[in-house]
Fold:
Amino acid sequence: MKFNKVLENIQTYEAGKPIELVVREFGIAPKDVVKLASNENPIGTNPAITKVIRSNADIAHLYPDDSMFELKEALSRKFDVEDENIIIGAGSDQVLEFISRALLNEASSVLMSAVTFAMYEIYAKQMGAKIIRTESYEHKYDEFIEAYHTYKPKIIYICTPNNPTGDATSREEVLKIIEGVDKDTLVVVDGAYMEYAAAKDQKHAIAPTDLLKYENVIYLGTFSKAHGLGGMRVGYGIAQAKLIKELYKMRPPFNITTLSLLVAIEACKDDSFVEASIALHQEQIKRYETFAKENGISYIESYTNFITYLFDENLDSTQISDALLKRGVIIRNLASYGMNGVRITIGTEVQNDVFFRHFAEVIS
Amino acid sequence: MKFNKVLENIQTYEAGKPIELVVREFGIAPKDVVKLASNENPIGTNPAITKVIRSNADIAHLYPDDSMFELKEALSRKFDVEDENIIIGAGSDQVLEFISRALLNEASSVLMSAVTFAMYEIYAKQMGAKIIRTESYEHKYDEFIEAYHTYKPKIIYICTPNNPTGDATSREEVLKIIEGVDKDTLVVVDGAYMEYAAAKDQKHAIAPTDLLKYENVIYLGTFSKAHGLGGMRVGYGIAQAKLIKELYKMRPPFNITTLSLLVAIEACKDDSFVEASIALHQEQIKRYETFAKENGISYIESYTNFITYLFDENLDSTQISDALLKRGVIIRNLASYGMNGVRITIGTEVQNDVFFRHFAEVIS
Structure:
């Protein structure tokens, strides 16, 4: 059978290693595995969410309301936008997929920073688009605008805060990039970790309403990180109605589960869980900064729920990640991103204790 | 912004109307709404599944094992195939999407019966492919082979049992169609309702192992119907490893939720719920056949969990569906499929009582 030519050029996304794999491969008991690899919320699941799941555990046979009326109402109140400005995805990932499929083809190019979320490239390659990267992992106006004028990309991705590096781009810089490109280029502002950046520094806070006046900009958000719902797969895109309507043409019906819809609605009701998550995070990340300084390890200042350690030639990120894995500590090796570094999700106090104990031994 | 040209030609799928909509629009209490529109399992959720959901309601923050190791093991045992023969989708729908994206482009055509599952057309149109339909809604060898030779379609869809008509194609006929086309055409055998057909008549039972010797055939199955897990969005494709590997390139990571993965694994453990679902169905569908005969209404003999009534010029499917909707009874109008008919999910005894009471009044 002859497959579409684009398939020749696609590598599949390497997900963070699951606890189950460590259990299977190294015979470590699940309770002894510390997973700091996938930027899951270390507090766990919001008890209010657990309650919603439990009380709806008997409607797994029912399809969700495909209009997602209630969730859109909740999000429109939360972000001060209209229902027609919102599209829901199975994670903001899926909205990235809709965008890619609606806009890209084999004649297109897309522009992103040197090191950023891996799915931008994968979804773009699925459409045969050419990948252009700036020199830096940070989103720098000069680099983006220069590349924009050279390549006229169809899509520019601004991941802020950036994953897997943790740095953020200021609202001012993002708006400058947006103002610097014409209306036929879509600018995707991916705020998957925005709650952490906004809590740390208002200069880096970007809200959908900051962007809604631009017809060629879409804001992406997710329930996976600060809301602690990674396993439920719900994210959203917010943009002008005309753009949302086009993206809807690529949305499959029932693209989130019945329970996912209900928990996302619940998550919109109360910010206290997000606030508690951020408070724990802000307290615990200091330990990672201190540890790095004390051990002569570089790190990128983080605006996210993880921290990125960068190693010099004395340490090898692959060796370190593998050694930790055998000890039941899962972190994210950044070798596949071309970096000699690791991304570590900030865990609970106990998880971080375990990490530091093993990490100190592994690097010594 | 310039969108891909294919978007000009896409209509979005019209999902069955949710209970929430009837509640919102007609002010009917949720408990008084009878939804027989989406072929959901009327027995409800398997209590064993409810238990799994309840006991995992506190891990919504954790991403699923993206290798889906355990689920693939369970499915490979169930169907006597290897892990490498399996791809999991968010419903078998998503596997249809992978297939479409891996194989189709603006130079392709796809072949399907006159009336069949709406998503075949939608996913094909998203890739710009041309839609060819046979004359009949039944999958007839002569019609398929004639159209095959005329159009050389890239994909042939065989939906058996067929949705929204309910008829099934015998294993012999399906194999004849497969043998009649060359290896560059993929034949999709969509068995979303296969459990019902197999229970009714072994001649219509098709198992993945019946098809695995063909490199250009894929079998699709789902947990949404007989397993009663429509709201969890889990389906699968089974084919030769080479084909599965290509489809994997279009699979996004974490494409089903953590709870969906767990419940699908649980569903593979025990067939008694499926058997009970089918037993209820076989008993209740007789009432629909009897009612039709007594009221001079034609119907298509059903191999699925629904029945399709076909009206003559004295009855209008849109008027009838709308009238029932206002009474809180949701069925599926087939006008958008070009049929003056309705598709009714076979409900519980009580649901069917309600349906017959209102339906008798509406058509009188």
